[in-house]
Amino acid sequence: MKLEDKMCVSGKLTIFRKEADGKLTKVLEKNNLVVNTGLQFLVNLMNGSSGLSHIAVGTDNTAVQAGDTTLGNELAREAFSSTAAVSTTWRADATFGSTEAVGTWEEAGMFNAAASGTMFNRVTGIGFTKSSGDTIIARFEITFSAV
Fold first, then answer.
1. Which domain holds residue 93?
2. What angle do CA 52, 54, 56 make, to 5 degrees?
């Protein structure tokens, strides 16, 4: 009998609207794809590279491909406002203020830089419209599991 270790990296995006009283209301949740550069990023991270730091949102709804390296049409990119690790899941939040990234969000991803950088993951088909005056928190959760 042959024993093998296998690992799966999966993730999801959750978008919250921050209400005037500070309460967070979940708007939507959508699974994402960890792209090839994201997998290579994990290898580089184990070799001492710096970590992920930003969430970007955009307007392109082109289907996600493993070879994607950028968003199709980036609206805005924000540094993580918080991160947390629980068991085998890591999450990062980024806050988009009332005047930032106004428009219809169709895509999102995580990056290791404020501009350009390496894209870790990408999700499309979000279909969320951010209005001026809305404060929105975009949260990615990445789960590592044995397959």
1. 7-139
2. 130
Say if residue 65 is exposed, middle or buried (CB neighbours under 10 Å; 0-12, 13-18, 19+). exposed
Q: What is the pLDDT of residue 43?
A: 78
Distance CA 21, CA 16 (A): 14
* Residue 4 CB neighbours (<10 A): 5
Say if 130 falls within a structural domain. Answer: yes
Q: What pLDDT does residue 129 have?
A: 97
Burial of 125 (0-12, 13-18, 19+ CB in 10 A): exposed
Within a domain: 144:
no
pTM, two decimals, is 0.87
Residue 115 DSSP code: S
Structure tokens at 21: 């009283």
β-strand pairing of 103-111 with 82-86: unpaired
**What is the count of structural domains for the chain?**
1
Q: Is position 146 within any domain? A: no
Task: Decide if 147 is inside a domain.
Answer: no
Other beta carbons within 10 angstroms of residue 66's beta carbon come to 12
